[in-house]
Fold this protein.
Amino acid sequence: MTTMIALEKSRPEPGLWQVTAPVPETGPDDVLIRVRKTGICGTDIHIWNWDDWAERTVPVPLITGHEFAGEIVELGRNVTGLAVGQRCSGEGHLIGRESRQSRAGRFHLDPATRGIGVNEQGAFAQFLRLPAFNVVPLPDAIDDEIGAILDPLGNAVHTALSFDLVGEDVLVTGAGPIGIMAAAVARHVGARHVVITDVNQTRLDLAARVADVVPVNVATTDLRSVFPALKMAQGFDVGMEMSGAQAALDQMVEHMVMGGRIAMLGIPPGKSPVDWSRIVFKAITIKGVYGREIFETWYKMIAMLENGLDIRPVITHRLPAGRFAEGFEIMRGGASGKVVLDWE
Ligand code: ZN
């Protein structure tokens, strides 16, 4: 086969287009993967919408998509340790090897990182070329649809494992798929209580179906009102900001204990005002989280999935790839969990 079906940002305007594209050539250090399932990410919605970020970042034309699972069908001539027929997912951040961070093994901090489906040809296609270095083989216990959402689960795991959660009271602001998965991870690793907030009741209901969490709709309920039932005296020990909403970060800082720790994955729109004096006087630590700690996060999440972490209910929609436009519409509606496209 020399051509394939793919979803492409073909023109600098809203939308994605189904195209016939050449199958990528497998370089000496690459593998070729037959894609079986892909996840639609919030990032893909930005690219579909063609907002300011997308216009600044994404070259046109580009095959988009970065959440995938599939099977290796070809190995570059230098590739060892992998096999044709192997099921895999993979790290979509292509790192450089020159920076101080990379050379120290802190791959996720490499400033030269490029993303598949964002800067380089992506995974919304029948075939994907990926450096063999980035391949993560999938054990039998992890099927293709879970394999296709390991990228966002990795964001959730990276955020959740930023601070020790054992016995802690945890607040997750934002019940999108990554917030929900982060809450599930917090429970899995032994948090005492996990409270998740949003203003979207559908998402909160989904959160409660995925994990043993306390959902709070902050549009109608005062967050502090849940403290007595949870026997919480002061506030939350650890916060995970997953919404990017200014009000959510404010509320989080307000409801943390003295010395609380916050991991921030949500991206606020532009510059947002922060009450720094409150953060100083409460001695709060804030950590920005980007991507996954390659490959430690992949190791940890696969280990957790093999040992009882179940995030499958976060997948709410499954569609054949040909119905991608419907999938994007569902995502844009804001009331879904993960939408997975089937490429077979
Ligand atoms: Zn993603």
The CA atoms of residues 30 and 145 lie 23 Å apart. The chain has a mean pLDDT of 96. The first strand starts at residue 3 and ends at 9.
